[in-house]
Design brief:
With about 260 residues, this protein is an alpha+beta fold. The protein has 2 domains: about 5-115; about 120-255. It is about 45% helix and about 20% strand. It is built from 6 helices and 6 strands; from the N terminus they run H-H-H-H-E-E-E-E-E-E-H-H. It has helices spanning about 5-25, 35-60, 70-85, 90-120, 225-240, 245-255, and strands at about 120-130, 140, 145-155, 160-170, 180-185, 190-195. Strands 1, 2, 3, 4, 5 and 6 form a 6-stranded antiparallel sheet that branches. A hairpin with a 3-residue loop joins strand 2 and strand 3 (about 145-155). Helix 1 (about 5-25) runs antiparallel to helix 4 (about 90-120) and helix 2 (about 35-60) runs antiparallel to helix 3. It is elongated, with a radius of gyration of 24 Å.
């Protein structure tokens, strides 16, 4: 992710949220006047343009974020358009809200990028996909909220552990149970992590796989036999490996030495 590009897009988003409402007032629109076709065009065009830019922004900063920015992007343009003709006094708080949202997205993206760059590589197996208890949160017909219960295996020797990922996913891209996710984990907080695309740089990820998959037969990751056996034993104790899978994996490992 390029910070400068994100900054430009966020600035464009703020402008597209505010400018159509300002144009309406400049054109003489008041609370009591009829809405002309020109003003209606500016409002609809501005809304669609800002939301397109916002979707690009959220794709850049990844999907695992709260739904609050989506709510703001959906409602704020209409608040601007309908309140500015009533009074210019509404302009300042709307600018502050839009700019504050942009700042929050930027700083959150910077923190996440720092985590992705310097976090501990890990691989997570999706143990369960949890839907909302009362209703599915579908955001603008494109994104949907899901909670994933994960088993995380880090490459620094930390025993596997479970954690929860609250994510926003595009429809059709929701992970299934048994799916694997590449992560970077905060060294100071094992339950703070970020998903990354591509392979981890942990040297080997053959020990992290869905519980219903056969273990990898490639154990040539430069570790000694004792370390590899300990790794398999940890997976077996955590429940990632059944007794049969653990036995087969151990036999392969011992046979390859």
């Amino acid at each position: 992710m390029k910070t400068q590009r994100l900054q430009l897009l966020l600035a464009a988003w703020v402008a597209l949220v505010i400018i159509p409402g300002v144009i309406a007032v400049v054109e003489g629109t008041t609370a009591d006047s009829d809405i002309t076709g020109k003003i209606f065009f500016w409002w609809i065009g501005g809304y669609l343009a800002q939301f397109f830019v916002f979707m690009v922004i959220m794709r850049m900063v990844h999907k695992n974020t709260t739904f609050l920015p989506w709510v703001i992007a959906s409602l704020l343009p209409w608040l601007v358009d309908w309140t500015l003709p009533v009074s210019w006094l509404f302009l300042a708080p709307w600018i502050l809200l839009a700019a504050g949202t942009a700042w929050w997205i930027l700083t959150s993206a910077d923190r996440e990028e720092e985590l992705r760059t310097h976090g501990i590589p890990a691989v997570a197996t999706v143990l369960k996909v949890i839907e909302p208890r009362f209703f599915n949160m579908v955001i603008n017909g494109v994104y949907i909220k899901r909670k994933l219960r994960l088993q995380i295996v880090r490459n620094d020797g930390t025993p596997p552990y479970e954690a929860v990922l609250h994510g926003t996913f595009m429809l059709g891209e929701i992970p299934d149970e048994g799916s694997r996710l590449n992560l970077r984990v905060d060294p100071k907080n094992p339950h703070r992590f970020a998903t990354v695309s591509g392979d981890t740089d942990s040297g080997s990820t053959d020990y992290a796989y869905p519980a219903n998959d056969a273990p990898s037969t490639d154990y040539s990751d430069g570790q000694d036999l004792s370390s590899q056996l300990e790794k398999l034993s940890a997976l077996h104790k955590s429940g990632s490996l059944s007794d049969e899978e653990f036995t087969r994996a151990k036999e392969r490992l011992l046979g390859s030495q």
